[in-house]
Design goal:
heterodimer, A: about 190 residues, mainly alpha, 3-stranded antiparallel β-sheet, two-stranded antiparallel sheet, 6 helices, 5 strands, about 50% helix, about 10% strand, B: about 575 residues, two-stranded antiparallel ribbon, 20 helices, 4 strands
């Protein structure tokens, strides 16, 4: 019985390995490449034939000319996704939140008296969150408009262009894709 | 909870419950070897596989021992293959980033983790695994572990269905395994993967894209066959991510639509198996009682978690963040959560993931509020709020045997369950099956807390640190795989200890449960009389629930008091 069991188990293992470990993923690669070539290869965006990033992967924007995404616990590095994993009582969590808030208030003193959107100074789950809340984008709009010398209404129109509602009006959160927003902002001015 | 949150949860649960009835019927057809719509497509595949595995083996009826041995030998060989691929990936193809093989401790932990359907990960996929390993080791293991859980449950149901031959035929492991793949797992994955790709999940053999950023500088973006892995990871209640951030990663779970799909995939088979149980054992009323009790536990868990996360914490409020939702933002505790999911979709996903012991997460559990995190911990301790593929239903039935026994003692009747007398052998085996779980959680947790190396791995201090270790061993024992991820468990001690706990948690309980099934199957059926304690009533359902809570609470309450509850009272000192 043992020899029969070992033989059958071994053959089953090899077959399932070929079928599920190689056949299935390779077949899906083929189907995906034919049906959705852009999405299957990472939703990359090209300007002048050069990849400038992915619609889905956040990057760090610095300086007053750009909208800022959420803080990343892992340095906005796609090679290292993850969260801060700081517990709700963690002293480091409190220190980080206070430091990020203080930095914003230094640049925009009018913020001192108001509460910030929940996503603005908290790190995301992936460290690569491409989105911010509408409130977060609205708050940043006048700063970016002033820095770029654009009318506020123009910047707000670009925000609307980069915004998504809830799916079916119900699922997920309304949000603004910072990657798309900043790229259109750059293109609108014709400078990179 | 917001009105929007309420309707999202209500709609997702309604769809999941509605799908489970026809799918449960379908599973019963598949494993009774009746005709299904997929036969014209899949019969040739079955025949080919059957011919290679061996016609003689496939025709052999198996008792519980033969079934368990075939399962163990097959899983052992598969685990060995996974270990070899992971260790040797440096020599294998499709390794664009030139990752070396895993060290023996990490390779053992990972192989044990994926073959037991745990998917605990002491590594980050994007910096550790080649594309070949992601497919040939990880994706393969996900199918294998899911099919194993499914067929074990089916064999147990057949034992309870009181076969005429006294339990000498619980089906054939190899045939069940093949049908689980060709009739259930592969067809669903083949259809759903393209939907995830359409939404933005990559499926490619390019390992890396290099972006030249508009602000200057370069961004290296890892890619790979993500979507195919993602589908089976959710459907098989496996849970191990392609990337370190798991389902929080925009490539694994790009939109609210994929989030809904991934939640439904996690729930589908475990919900349906309760229906399948009712059909195969001929106990539809009892199945309805079980389904109701588990569904109520799930709804309460989701409600508590979503409420706790939406309520936020005094620390967040004190840092000048908006706590109430509205004005174009979501409020609540957004630490470790993604913008597109907000509070509701994050807490719902993780609660479902720990109820159904998937273990994938779309937000960082370590940063959840004390109660939000405790919900996940408690569900894994009970391990039967629907639970993982197959095993959850079996755990729930073990509690049922226990409840019948206690109720029998209280009213002075011979305990009977499913028309069989429950005697010493069944009670001992069921008690062992239930006691293994706390034993392999609490002992290693205590050991880790008492050793300098165990504590050095912590990412947080005080009671939250205790929760991190407790969570790790609970997750391993429940074959869940989610983590309070601040714990850096990629050390030889943790790799070995967690690996062993996962193996014990999986195979010891499966063997004990199959033994209970075999023992019940060998008994003559007792005719139901006026003196029989009925188990398919709301009253007994309530008693069943009370048994689960009392046994679970007595075992784990002290640990919970030291961990999440202590943290709760520190965080909210004035109630």
């Amino acid at each position: 019985m043992w020899r029969q069991t070992m033989g059958s188990a071994l053959r089953l293992t090899v077959l399932v390995w070929l079928l599920c470990g190689l056949g299935y993923p390779l077949l899906e690669v083929g189907i995906s490449d034919l049906a959705f070539p852009a999405a299957a290869n990472g939703s990359l965006v090209r300007v002048d034939h050069r990849i400038v990033g992915s619609r889905l992967i956040g990057e760090r924007f610095t300086g007053p000319m750009w909208f800022k995404g959420r803080p990343s616990a892992t340095g906005d590095n796609p090679m290292h996704s993850g969260a801060s994993n700081l517990g709700p009582l963690s002293r480091r969590l409190r220190d980080h939140l206070w430091a990020r808030r203080a930095q914003l208030v230094r640049r925009h003193p009018s913020l001192a008296a108001r509460r910030l959107p929940a996503d603005m100074i908290t790190t995301s789950g992936s460290g690569l969150d491409p989105d911010i809340s509408l409130a977060n984008a609205d708050l940043q709009a006048p700063w970016v408009a002033r820095a770029r010398g654009l009318p506020l209404a123009r910047v707000q129109a670009l925000i609307a262009h980069a915004a998504h509602g809830r799916w079916l009006g119900l699922f997920g959160e309304p949000r603004v894709n910072v990657q798309v927003l900043n790229w259109t902002l750059a293109a609108a001015l014709g400078r990179r | 909870m917001t009105a929007n949150g309420f309707w999202q949860i209500a709609l997702i649960l309604a769809v999941a419950f509605a799908l489970s009835v026809p799918f449960g019927r379908y599973l019963a057809r598949v494993f009774r070897n009746e005709r299904t719509r997929l036969d014209p497509l899949m019969d040739p595949v079955d025949r080919l596989l059957g011919r290679i595995v061996g016609r003689r083996t496939l025709g052999m009826p198996m008792g519980w021992k033969e079934y368990a041995i075939s399962m163990l030998v097959t899983n052992g060989l598969m685990g060995l293959l996974i270990y070899l691929i992971l260790s040797g990936q440096g020599l294998l193809p499709l390794n664009p980033l030139k990752f070396p093989g895993l060290n023996p401790f990490l390779a053992f932990n990972t192989a044990a983790s994926f073959i037991t359907n745990t998917n605990w990960q002491n590594y980050s996929g994007e910096t550790t695994l080649s594309l070949f390993s992601q497919m040939a080791a990880i994706t393969f293991a996900m199918f294998a572990a899911a099919a194993t859980g499914l067929v074990v449950a089916i064999a147990f149901f057949r034992a309870l269905a009181a076969p005429a031959d006294g339990g000498r035929n619980l089906g054939n492991f190899y045939q069940d395994f093949i049908r689980a793949l060709t009739r259930v797992l592969l067809p669903l994955c083949l259809v759903i993967t393209p939907v995830l790709v359409w939404q933005g999940s990559p499926e490619t053999l390019h390992g890396l894209a290099v972006a030249h950023l508009v602000q200057g500088g370069v961004q290296r973006i890892p890619l790979g066959p993500v979507a195919g892995l993602e589908t089976i990871k959710q459907l098989g209640t496996n849970g191990g991510g392609f990337f370190g951030a798991n389902s929080a990663h925009p490539y694994e779970n790009p939109t609210p639509l994929t989030n809904v799909i991934e939640i439904l995939l996690m729930m589908l088979t475990s919900l349906s198996l309760v229906v399948t149980f009712g059909i195969m054992v001929g106990q539809r009323r009892l199945a309805r009682v079980m389904y109701t009790v588990m569904a109520l536990m799930l709804v309460v868990a989701i409600g508590v978690a979503v409420h706790a996360e939406q309520a936020g914490t005094p620390v967040l409020a004190g840092s000048g963040l908006m706590i109430h939702p509205g004005h174009g933002q979501m409020g609540g505790n957004m630490v470790g959560k993604e913008t597109r999911f907000g509070i509701t979709d994050s807490a719902l996903f993780n609660t479902v993931s720990t109820a159904f012991t998937t273990g994938s997460v779309n937000s960082a559990l370590d940063s959840y509020t004390p109660l939000g995190g405790m919900v996940s911990l408690v569900q894994m301790m009970l391990n039967c709020v629907f639970g993982g593929k197959g095993v959850g239903t079996l755990n729930f039935l073990m509690y049922g045997i226990f409840a019948v026994f206690i109720a029998g003692l209280m009213v002075g009747r011979t305990p009977e369950f499913l028309g069989k007398k429950i005697e010493r052998r069944e009670i001992v085996l069921a008690a062992l099956a239930l006691l293994v779980h706390p034993l392999i959680i609490l002992l290693p947790t205590a050991w880790a807390l008492a050793s300098p190396g165990g504590v050095a791995a912590l990412g947080n201090t005080a009671s939250h640190g205790l929760s991190e270790i407790l969570y790790a061993f609970t997750s391993a024992a429940a074959n869940n795989g989610s983590a309070f991820a601040g714990l850096n468990a990629n050390t030889p001690w943790y790799n070995t200890a967690l690996g062993l706990v996962m193996l014990l948690g999986r195979y010891v309980s499966i063997i004990l449960m199959l033994a209970v099934g075999g023992s019940l199957a060998a008994k003559p059926a007792v005719p139901s009389t006026i003196g029989t304690l009925r188990t398919d009533t709301a009253l007994f359902g309530g008693f069943w629930f009370a048994t689960i809570i009392v046994v679970g609470a007595l075992t784990f309450l002290p640990a919970l008091v030291l961990g999440p509850l202590a943290e709760f009272f520190l965080l909210y000192p004035h109630g």
